[in-house]
């Protein structure tokens, strides 16, 4: 694995600016509003348009290591621009008016959403934190082999994200109106997402050697085994997304949802400590896979006990 170039003060400052603009862009972009109003096409067009502009700018203007600052400006500026356009589009489309907020109102909102916040935080124990955990247990080379494979798999997994985002408001409405209708469409959603996830997983498993050779190069040979193990993540996550996001949360099972994800995070860390020092990147991959298996199976069992069989 090639060693990354030493960061210079200018490069570090540029990276910091990127993160600041991305955070501000995410804050400004009212994804939650478009999702709740079931107007996902609008945000898809805005996001796709901005990403195309940034991509063209990167390929056109960035050619040398010295262009790192320009690259950072394009990435951060694109995120900020998308946020501004999204906010202005929301004001225009939904005729939004600025209103004052109270401290008690903010506190009530935080109390209402703390369980889901912890749920998202728990997910990071077996997603975003994997490379960090592996780095503490092995070395940078092993982290490189694992991270490269995981980033590709999770990038392909994001193809299923828009389906889940678009379906969630409808399932929330169905759960409030009719238990039977929510379960009926839940079964259909499970087949749709499960089938799509299985297709992605099979494609990754069979195509892992070719994917690694084309995108990473021959020096990343050990990433093939890692990719084949975590290739099953899209299938498992597609199923658990329907069970958790589309069924458990709309039916008010937030706490159980959080506990399942937190338990999976603890299992992932525990297995990583046991397996990674011996099997290195492959051990980390097995830890993540077994954690996702726990999430999916536990959700199935929990819903069955509650009489919500899909």
- How far do the termini sit from each other? 46 Å
Name the helix and strand elements from N-terminus to C-terminus, one letter apiece: HHHHHHHHHHHHH
DSSP strand count: 0
Poorly predicted runs of 5 or more residues: 1-9
Mean pLDDT: 88
Quick recap:
This protein is an all-alpha fold. It is 81% helix and 0% strand.
Which key features would you list for this structure?
single chain; mainly alpha; 13 helices; 0% strand; disordered N terminus
Topology summary:
Blueprint: H1 9-28, H2 31-36, H3 40-61, H4 68-94, H5 103-123, H6 130-137, H7 140-157, H8 161-177, H9 179-215, H10 223-230, H11 233-248, H12 254-279, H13 281-305
Helix pairs in contact: 1-4, 3-4, 5-12, 6-7, 6-12, 7-9, 7-10, 7-13, 8-9, 8-11, 9-10, 9-11, 10-13, 11-13, 12-13
Molecular structure report:
- The chain is mainly alpha-helical.
- Helix content is 81%, strand content 0%.
- The chain contains 13 helices and no strands.
- Helix 12 runs antiparallel to helix 13 (281-305).
- It is globular and about 55 Å long.
- Residues 1-9 have low confidence and may be disordered.
């Amino acid at each position: 694995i090639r060693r990354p170039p030493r960061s210079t003060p200018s490069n570090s400052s540029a990276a910091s600016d990127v993160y600041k603009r991305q955070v501000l862009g995410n804050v400004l972009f009212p994804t939650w509003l478009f999702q709740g109003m079931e107007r996902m096409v609008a945000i898809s067009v805005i996001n796709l348009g901005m990403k195309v502009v940034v991509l063209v700018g990167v390929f056109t203007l960035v050619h040398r290591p010295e262009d790192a600052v320009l690259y950072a400006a394009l990435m951060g500026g694109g995120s900020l621009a998308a946020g501004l356009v999204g906010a202005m589009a929301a004001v225009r489309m939904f005729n939004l008016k600025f209103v004052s907020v109270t401290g008690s109102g903010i506190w009530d909102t935080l109390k209402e959403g703390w369980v889901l916040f912890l749920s998202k935080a728990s997910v990071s124990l077996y997603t975003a934190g994997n490379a960090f955990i592996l780095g503490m247990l092995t070395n940078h080379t092993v982290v490189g082999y694992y991270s490269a494979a995981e980033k590709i798999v999770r990038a392909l997994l994001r193809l299923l994200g828009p389906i889940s985002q678009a379906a969630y408001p409808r399932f929330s409405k169905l759960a409030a109106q009719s238990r039977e209708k929510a379960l009926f469409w839940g079964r259909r959603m499970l087949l749709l997402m499960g089938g799509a996830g299985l297709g992605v997983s099979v494609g990754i498993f069979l195509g892992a050697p070719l994917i690694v050779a084309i995108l990473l190069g021959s020096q990343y040979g050990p990433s093939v085994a890692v990719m084949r193990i975590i290739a099953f993540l899209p299938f498992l996550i597609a199923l658990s997304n329907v069970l958790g996001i589309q069924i458990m949360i709309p039916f008010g099972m937030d706490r159980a949802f959080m506990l399942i994800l937190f338990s999976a995070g603890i299992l992932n860390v525990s297995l990583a400590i046991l397996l990674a020092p011996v099997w290195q990147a492959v051990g980390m991959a097995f830890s993540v896979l077994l954690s996702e298996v726990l999430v999916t199976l536990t959700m199935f069992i929990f819903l069955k006990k509650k009489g919500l069989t899909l």
